[in-house]
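Q: I have 306 residues here and want to know how they pack in 3D. Can you give me a structure?
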Amino acid sequence: MYTQADKRCLLPELVAHIQNGDCLAIGGGLSWREPMAALRELIRQNIKDLKLVGSAHGIDVDLLCGAGSVAASAESYVGFEQDFGMALNYRRACESGAVKVEDNCCYTLVQQLRAAIQGLPFMPIRSVQGTDFLKLHPEFKTMTCPFSGEQLVLVPALKPDVALIHAHYADEHGNLHIEGPPVADILFAKASKKVIVTVEAFISHQELASKGITIPYFYVTAACEVPYGAHPTSCYPRYAYDREHTKHYYQAAKSGDDGFRKDYLDPYVYECKDHAAYLSLIGGQTRLARLEQWNDGVDQWMQLYE
């Protein structure tokens, strides 16, 4: 348990909790509430050889693969859905062998996290039978249920070294409030050895309690206030997904490793000394205000995707 009275810190200090070779669980999913500012800082700190675990993800995992930060991926999906399609850096890294493919399925991941939370060494499941997931995961075992005679798969408990989450609000103690779907974040927080968090804003404990505590303080190791820390993914209801920026990212990824480094990694990560510099580069308050206008009506929202 983490019981310090004040867990606030700066972003470089927060990310320094992640070490080379860690198993890292990334919160959010797809284009929703991914901890992008922290991941850019992770790349700047040259943290390498990570094993990533998660459910359905996109630009976050793809960016880490493009930067050479990943050794293995146990994600269930990495891509840009129907909008842009495959995650190109991720695909290149997996096909070249730079990233070991340990694909998982969402439900199996959930059961592995539940086993860790409950202090169990494994969890029985019915899913993944008849698939090649068993070849990707030789640690998965099969057994005949002594009660029903049914064939089951046993999956080991999963306890990530660090869970990295972006939330809407926190108080100084580390209590978190997430608006909307928590995805796997609550399970990550309960199962992981450390939980580090970026938040849109710190608020008083009284205000946070009135909103509702999604993840209580004793799971949280450290927290940092990073407004727009999920950009270019969304953090509804505050701001929408930045499709225009994501299109630029995708075009850079299409140009190959060297082109991606020149057109995206260098300007948006390495040459930005901090998150404030990144926000200025992507268009500053003018751009951010437009992403916030999605809530003004359907027309304003749809204009972001034209």
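Q: Anything worth noting?
A: The two ends are 47 Å apart (CA to CA). Residues 256-270 form the longest helix (15 residues).
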